[in-house]
Design goal:
Layout (H helix, E strand, L loop, with lengths): L1 E3 L3 H14 L7 E6 L26 H17 L7 E6 L5 H12 L3 E5 L13 H9 L4 E5 L8 E5 L5 H12 L7 E7 L15 H33 L6 E7 L4 H11 L4 E5 L14 H8 L4 E5 L1
Parallel strand pairs: 1-2, 2-3, 4-5, 6-7, 6-9, 7-8, 9-10
Antiparallel strand pairs: 5-10
Helix pairs in contact: 1-2, 3-4, 5-6, 7-8
């Protein structure tokens, strides 16, 4: 399910997803528009740089349908089969996040996608309130946040030791297993270890420290590699060329999120997939969390959060 509003950015993000998934099998798309009352067009994406050209109100049924029609044209224009596209409109919608999540739960949508919000200078929420709440409350669903155009279709899968790693692998295989020319890289960042782990009765010298770091990276790599192998086999079974599937281990340097962002930018990956636990208690997950940092920094990319 892809949530849209009247902005060009929203349609551009939809076209990106259509181009990415047009050759996939068994995937359908529903374009969802949540029309808020009183002409307030802060639906699932608010682009502060684009005028609100379509006044949204319950009595403006033709305008609401036009939003959906333009969005469908953008999706079909990207090459996505029109027979796999449906549209849905909810009028008098006071809370887009709740409306999207309610529809996803009732009708079995496993993925909710929306365009990345263009932040106004005075806006303290870079993700936008709707995206923020969906990321942290959509239990057992994936949230895609798209910032068009993508720098590439290469996929970076960040493995951070979450117990939902298998769900991440299944998501990658289902949505990206049709890719044949793009790289799909599984990466694990080895966290820093507590000082007690390093206690050998003396301060490690330079060579000893390098040897110990290499040993820890190798040990962690073997543990995570078992998880990555599941994803690799899923992708190979789906037809992804073996040479396009890689596994990498990186030792933590500047921070988990920053190291992932660095790898994403250095490798010019256009798609990032990461898992996290879902929770309905939003206060437990401040904007400083790993997922939030990744969402804030992933310009020109699509970030997939698998709950």
């Amino acid at each position: 399910m892809f949530g849209v509003d009247s902005s060009e950015t929203s349609r551009a993000a939809l076209a990106v997803v259509g181009d990415l998934l047009k050759s996939s099998e068994g995937l359908d798309a529903t374009i969802f528009h949540c029309a808020t009352p009183f002409g307030d067009d802060e639906t699932v994406h608010l682009d502060e740089t684009v005028p609100r050209v379509v006044p949204i109100a319950g009595s403006k049924a033709a305008d609401n349908q036009r939003v959906l029609s333009l969005a469908k044209d953008a999706l079909v224009g990207s090459g996505f089969d029109s027979s796999r596209v449906s549209t849905a409109l909810q009028e008098y919608c006071s809370d887009p996040a709740v409306a999207m999540l309610h529809m996803a739960c009732n009708q079995g949508y496993e993925t909710i996608a929306l365009a990345r919000r263009k932040r106004a200078r005075t806006d303290p929420s870079p993700m936008g309130s709707v995206a923020y709440r969906l990321v942290y409350t959509a239990d057992k669903r994936a949230i895609w946040l798209v910032d068009p155009p993508l720098v590439s279709k290469d996929v970076l899968v960040a493995l951070v030791g979450a117990p939902i790693s298998r769900r991440v692998m299944e998501h990658v295989a289902r949505y990206f297993g049709h890719l044949r020319d793009e790289r799909i890289t599984f990466m694990h960042v080895v966290p820093r270890l507590p000082p007690a782990y390093w206690d050998d009765g003396h301060i490690l010298k330079g060579d000893e420290r390098k040897e110990r770091i290499a040993k820890i990276a190798s040990d962690y790599g073997e543990m995570v590699k078992d998880v990555a192998d599941i994803g690799r086999e899923m992708l190979l079974e789906a037809g992804v060329p073996r040479k396009n599937v890689k596994f990498r281990v990186r030792t933590l340097k500047r921070g988990m999120a920053r190291d992932i962002i660095r790898e994403m930018e250095r490798g010019r990956y256009g798609i990032l997939v990461i898992g996290r636990r879902g929770s309905r208690n939003i206060s437990r997950f401040p904007l400083g969390s790993k997922a939030a940092k990744l969402l804030h920094s992933a310009r020109g990319r699509m970030v997939c959060i698998v709950n």
